[in-house]
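Why do we care about 3D structure at all? Because function follows from shape, and shape follows, mostly, from sequence. That is the central idea of this module. The next example makes it concrete: a single protein chain, its amino acid sequence, and then its structure expressed as tokens.
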Amino acid sequence: MKNTILGFTFIIATALVISCTSKTEEPTTTFDLVTAKAEIEEANENFMALVAAGDSVGLANAYTSDAKFMSAGAPSVVGRANIQSAMAGIVNSGITKVDLRLENVYGTKDLIAEEGELSLFVGDKEVAIEKYLVLWKKEDGKWKLFRDIFNSNLPVE
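And the structure:
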């Protein structure tokens, strides 16, 4: 009887140790590039609406806090405050509309690369046709522009 009690105690102690030391699996989320692309397309629609509204604050908030904006013919600007100033300059230059045409996205759950073409408008007049690359990064659960560079399709004069 004593051996039975000792054996039973040993089995229970072993089970407790094993159950306390075994890891519970954390739920994993699977990255889906198709879903990410749809989210980026939605962010692009929002960006175009903000340009049409002339909202430089809203445009700056579409970027990550550590973003870099690299437009042709100007030095790069880093951070939302500086990006807001750059966006205000673009809006104040007369740009009233941007048409973003996403061509491809590549990436992982951490970083998405988008390539596309864009047109800039003053009123109804198309004033520029350009190409762009954007790196998107999640911040506060949303894809935001992390690196943004674009340049003209026109030949250098």
